[in-house]
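## Example pair
The file below holds two records. Each record gives the amino-acid sequence first, followed by its structure token line.
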Amino acid sequence: MKLIPMILIYIIYFYIKSNRTIQYLQQNRYNRGNKFIKYIKTHLKKIYLNIELLFIPLLVFVYIIKVNYIYAFTCIYLFFAFIRLYLYKKEQKKIPLVYTKRVIRLYITLTLIYMLPFIINICLIDINKYVFMIILWLLMYLDQFVIIFANIINIPEEKLVGLYFKSKAINKLNNMGNLSVIGITGSYGKTSSKNILCDILNVKYNALASPKNFNTPYGLMMTINNYLDKFNDYFIAEMGACKKGEIKELCDLVHPKYGILTKIGIAHLETFGSEETIQKTKFELIESLPEDGIGILNRDDPKQVSYKGDIKARVLWIGIDNYKECDVYATDIKLSNLGTTFTVHFKNDKKKYEFTTKLLGKNNIYNILAGIALGNELGISKEQLIKAVKGVKPVEHRLELKRYYDMHLIDDAYNANPDGCKMALDVLKMMPGEKIVISSGMIELGPLADKMHKDLGKYMSDKVNYAILIGKEQTKYIKEGLIENKFNPDNIFVLNNVLDAFNLVNKLKGKDTYILLQSDLPDIFNEK
């Protein structure tokens, strides 16, 4: 009974501290591909130089003065709980922990692990009180590894849950005979292409796209089970991957008849291992299409043109630069701060078609061309396509132009790849007035990271008036690239978080100011 107050305070402390760690685990896809372990390895100082180290001198102090250890340690953990709660509330949280059923199951397992020393001490062995306190402290101090262990314990249960939802999703798809599935993958541009295609198809059909970034097996199962209904004609499935075979796994789940490959770059190079593996993995979608299916490929992407594989489906090529062998291509592209106009040509059709869109950037023209090419094959008239493209809505956090007080904000926060970052800078350059970039750099570029960041800095140097870099270590090579290209060092600012950057922008702004928010990385990349 004497331990009850201490147990309650300890549990409260455990939940407060574990919340942040589980948030990072969730952002690292529950350690899929050992991403969470890699995160721990690269952030050892940040993780382990913390307030819990105060426990050791406090333990020595309690031992010396010989006070009631239960009372003493209840007070200590209450103190830690208040400090942790204060720090947690103060921290910038861009992507908060989502309390899914999986997270709840993980918390249940963790609770049992953290209660185990109390159970052993009360029911089985009377452990020395100071040894007991050290065990409790080690569990809390090493909570990352305790959570990894709990995650491993839960793997069989999670597999059973996954099999249940997979079976349910497959049965639902099998009972929808009139539904056709469209898969979309690529190193970047997947979400934009998916949303654009959905808007285009919905001028004639009832199309459903997987929401947000639901591009994993669980995400697609959830979409099918919770959102898909008998009235849908097309299901557009975004397909993400970090390693070879993951696109094939998604194709085996939903069996797409049509496929769009956006662009192949070096995104996730760290987990894929090589550019060749990235290329082969992305083409798993196109190779999974049936003979009566259609694959949309980009003639301007060398990695798509050079691919030699087993493709059974009919292929349609889109393009802008290498248009001679394209089935659908764009010319006369005119970009402005209001949007884009361009002319579309169809193979075996001498007529030209004028299109207008609110979207910015060349990559979005490719995404629109893919939607136009497939929409045309699915029986949507040219007039309907023109109307649909004009009504396409900007995708949230992807070159989204919006008003920010008395300034203009180009929100490209969800973009963290080399080509996409450079294209966003091109968009910023054509804007009138003062130009400010807020950049956190790029991620998962493996051994090419330093070079790519320096190249980005060089590319940025003649396109902005001010560069605000988030994270000293993450962006140090961007800064080097800027300075190497003779950018004024006084116009470079290195800060710790995006909130501070927006406070600084208010001091730097001119009469007409455009801000590019580039690659606002998740919390796991925070340096403090």
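Second record, same layout:
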Amino acid sequence: MQHELIIILDFGSQYTQLIARRVREQGVYCEIHPFHLSAEAIAAKRPTGVILSGGPSSVTDEDAPRVAADFYESVGVPILGICYGMQLVAVDLGGRSEPAARREYGHAKVKVLSGRTDLFNELPFELDVWMSHGDHVTELPSGFVRTATTGDVVTAIENPERRIYCVQFHPEVSHTPLGKELLRNFLFQICGCKGDWTPASFIKEEIERIRETIGTTDRVICGLSGGVDSTVAAVLVHEAIGDRQTCIFVNNGLLRYREFEDTLQVYKDNLHLNVIGVDASAEFYAVLAGITDPEKKRKAIGAKFIDVFQAEADKLADANWLVQGTLYPDVIESVSVRGASVTIKTHHNVGGLPEEMNLKLIEPLRELFKDEVRAIGRDLGIPEMILERHPFPGPGLGVRILGDITPDKVELLQKADRIFIEELHRSGLYNEVWQAFAVLLPIQSVGVMGDFRTYEKTVALRAVTSTDGMTADWARLPHELLAAVSSRITSEVRGVNRVVCDITSKPPGTIEWE
């Protein structure tokens, strides 16, 4: 089925992915492409509309990113320019953009001018918006009219005949409260979208696509981590080809309390996956013995995972495909805004599996964002215990135990972490925080228990709020909750006599300690 499609041309804005998410939230499928995508390539995709993102460059720079020379004449569909996109449209079509006297960043009030404008249809004449720009349009191209201003600054322009609409502010961010309505106007009134992109339609089409890709005889391997992405990918493939997929779930000894046993049971009993559980805890502990440097721990864990997975995969000699839970942000970040010569981030290979496995790749989630994966997971019947689980680092508790790793330390941290998570669930706050966990510190301190002096370990509690993990603020948890967690840990976890709370935001800190 050919879905209606919005193409977003990326000029390097930090908000480009957010534009895509806002469009998808309206039930409209969209794709992000580098700004230099040719007009011919755009036309071949048969889009319903095109959005030009913001970006850090000044349109007056000699090397400023530009669309293809024949873009405006050839694209043939409505265009929405946002921030840098507006300045680019103005300059490309004969207007002028100049550096502003001062950079405008943050909250602003926009006055919508009287008169009919489809983009601002049914919106109030005064809007709260979010600005982030250093240039502004000082001369409009021929055929364009102003539709909104901030003081003397032109904030929105349009040419209805050419179906080109531009705004200086960012409608995609939450700081522009009515931005969603403005985007809806562009999508539905101007582009004529109907909103046919739904999790249910994706599931049906993806299952058919997997069947066509894999065929009727090929076999598939999938590495499961216990997390959302790999689980949803595995269930989709299972719906398509059943037990011709073999899943491998490795216990590296660094998972959360009973996570291996409980998740393995869900995979088998609830989701009916053909899954092999491999308890390789002892092997991981052996290669980690005496290592204290965080990066060396990560590398040791990654290398051992490859060894274990490869050994299990070798037993399935007739497998032809490898399933990976790659998401759309991974795909986007592997494509440079500046072109093929510079890459923002290499497209990650989940689990770091070696290329010499000679397996063809199948990535059923590569068109989806995280929130869409969760929605699809619910439609597939995946339990909330997996879908709503907080993010967990690949090296697991290996980077939450500062210093060397031993089985005793892992058991101690698992128990402390379990208590923290239990109390968060009990208080109804688990889903209010992005991530929460305990960290075992490499220090001991004096305490007193009963009539005895103790000299035991310290556990730090870490809880943050975030939307995407790129930035985070420490969660303001109720004192009563923290008191309950501290009391239970010091009472129930032998070897811990002190609990502290990490109140560092990101930046300057990171979410994980290592």
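Notes on the second record: The chain has a mean pLDDT of 88. Residues 208-387 form a domain with the Rossmann fold fold (CATH 3.40.50.620).
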